[in-house]
Fold each of these.
Amino acid sequence: MNIHILSIVPELLESPFGHSIMKRAANKGLLNITVHHLRNWAVNEHGMVDDYQFGGGAGMVMMCEPLVKAIEELNATHQFDEIIYMTPDGKTFNQGMANTLSLKKSLLFICGHYKGIDQRVRDHFITKEISIGDFVLSGGELAAAVVVDAIGRIIPGVLNDETSALFDSFQDNLLAPPVYTRPEEFRGWKVPSVLMSGDHRKIEEWRYDEALKRTEEKRPDLLSD
Ligand code: ADE
């Protein structure tokens, strides 16, 4: 998969994809991430990409011209399946959206700043608008990093244990069950005996029951969906 990210603070995106599973995805040639500096398409030699909003009011708006030029130039060579604007008024991101996006070939993420981007760019170029939650970040970069991470780790072939993503929290609208590792007893606290039984059917039943219990306790909204 090819992921392109358009940003006015590309430095913010230097580290998140260089480690752990994202690094493995890149090394396996399954995920290619390119960050573009929007100021390369600025309207003047001062790097201008934003301006005052019509109608008055505090806060700058990211201008049409740099965004449209950047999107058109990048789209001509990469033919994006989706052009995604990261914004707090977008659709709230979830595992289902991550699953769908992980099957695409080519994505462009636009990171907003200030008051956001000129509505005409949204109307004419953006195919999806995503929020990572009901709070406002100082820019879309960290939100894009969250979404790219969630997508990248489930691209087929990225995880070593191909099945493990299937048992993540949210994959079937259930939170994941509790997990334990060695030692079997620590300070007198014992691992549930069923996990030591070797009876795989019983273990699966226990995990399902625990997942259900945890979801009822912590996220009943998932069960009513
Ligand atoms: N930009 C600022 N806040 C955001 C959020 N919550 N989700 C996505 N992009 C954002």
Amino acid sequence: MKVNGKHYRTIWVHPENPGVIQIIDQRHLPHQFVIEDLSTLDQTVTSIKDMHVRGAPLIGIAAAYGIYLALLEAKSKQQDSKKTIESACQKLKETRPTAVNLAWALECQRNALAHCHSIEEMIGKSLETARHLANQDVEMCKQIGVHSLKMIEEVSARKKGLSVNILTHCNAGWLACVDWGTKTSGIYQAFDKKIPIHVWVDETRPRNQGASLTAWEFSQHGIPHTVVADNAGGHLMQRKMVDLVFVGSDRVTQAGDVANKIGTYLKALAAKASDIPFYVAFPSTTIDWTMKEGLREIPIEERSPDEVSYIEGFVDGSIKKVRLTPPNSPAFNPAFDVTPASLITGLITERGIAPASKEGLLKLFPEKNLDD
Ligand code: MRU
């Protein structure tokens, strides 16, 4: 998508140095647009763990490029390539536990490299695989948008051209993917078709991905939007100021239960109570076909309590952190929650929209032959 009128992806190979992967360092947004160079496995691990890159699809792609960088390092240090792949996969997988795309991307690299005979061949193959996964993510997100657009068009027709109001949580925009985003792809496509839309952007405490990232994306593209405190969503829904809720996901189970940024569950409850459609958009790479249900099985990342006790903002030309809570009040920071399938109107994937159930998902992905 566009940054100051120029098209960017969130991750790419340095145009003049194929040994360097470039990313948008999201810690600085919306105040500064910073591009970071990654040339080692450890830098990639840090970039995922400390959320320079974030969002389920993007951390998968970053991990895939991390394997490529690890193999380049192994060649220059004359290390064993097979051991390098295993320890790099281990390090990368430990960075963030909830998004399944990370494990999926590493598995794709493992499979792609299994039959290579030399380190040179592995380097070439790992780069090709990471590039392929990145391009595939772009295509999947674009298709998710095609399906979401139909729903926006239906609401727009019903409202006879009055603005369609969509509420979003966290950032499942292009910054969380490679391009387009999941929940935002249909919004961009509707806007480009001149359908009147307006987005309520949840701030998404504690890290404020909505207020800082989704709002920045929309302002760059000219999408009408308003940032609201997380607690405002229920009130807006009760007053029918929301037509649709769109969120993304970090892991979806066979049963259609969805892990997503903390606070998603509360929005789903409010949407159900106000009879407002609640849709979850994600590429099929976010489905964990090995998991039967979400509440007990999905690992929930617990992050530093400091993300709750402090808040960051832009002061005098730089980002500063200030304390919000009394120094001896402890804080607790679960980063995700699970929304049960029963609260979800539909799952939007690159293959179409399914009811949130095992049957619904299997209709879209019949090749997944699951035994009970
Ligand atoms: O902790 P983050 O910022 O990496 O989490 C990402 C999310 O939870 C998003 O809500 C998103 O919906 C999933 S990624 C498309």
